[in-house]
Design brief:
With 150 residues, this protein is α+β, with helices and mostly antiparallel strands. It contains six helices and six strands; from the N terminus they run ααββββααααββ. Helix 3 packs across helix 5 (112-129). The longest helix has 23 residues, at 2-24.
Length: 150
């Protein structure tokens, strides 16, 4: 019972930590490790307790299977690494816009057109499964992209 509760608390800690790190703009593994060590020196995390799924507004991203469950009940599978990374950034932002520059920096992309292309691919993939859900990834002019909850 105690061990089960400890695991539940660790998973919540990982989830909050992941959202914190995304908001700080650190997406690469080395940056993640440095951020955790600098900002949380006493925090002892077990990598086995890391969440395998993240969700917001009905979208649920399975990080191990690289698939995206949609609010309408469909599923987009076989996301590429960059599609999965961009989707996870949008989901972790919980409805707040994520700038193109943040995406470019985090994923080491060279041009804004690359971000546009991957957003297009994500929208197109979602649209094949559920045309309604495709419209929930929005461009907020001057601020970036976001996923809406409704």
């Amino acid at each position: 019972m105690v061990e089960e509760r400890r695991s539940e608390i660790n998973k919540l800690a990982f989830d909050h930590l992941a959202r914190y790190i995304v908001m700080r703009g650190v997406y690469d593994l080395d940056g993640l490790i440095k951020t955790v060590r600098n900002d949380f020196p006493s925090l002892k995390l077990n990598p086995n307790d890391a969440p395998t799924q993240i969700s917001f507004g009905g979208f649920e991203l399975d990080l191990k299977r690289s698939s995206l469950a949609l609010p309408s009940g469909g599923e987009m599978s076989h996301l590429t690494r960059l599609e999965k990374d961009i989707t996870s950034m949008l989901i972790c932002a919980e409805g707040e816009p994520v700038s193109r520059k943040s995406i470019m920096t985090a994923l080491d992309l060279k041009k804004e057109s690359e971000v546009n292309y991957y957003i297009y691919k994500i929208r197109r993939g979602i649209g094949k499964v559920s045309p309604i859900d495709r419209r929930r990834i929005l461009l907020i002019r001057g601020r970036g992209y976001k996923i809406t909850a409704e």
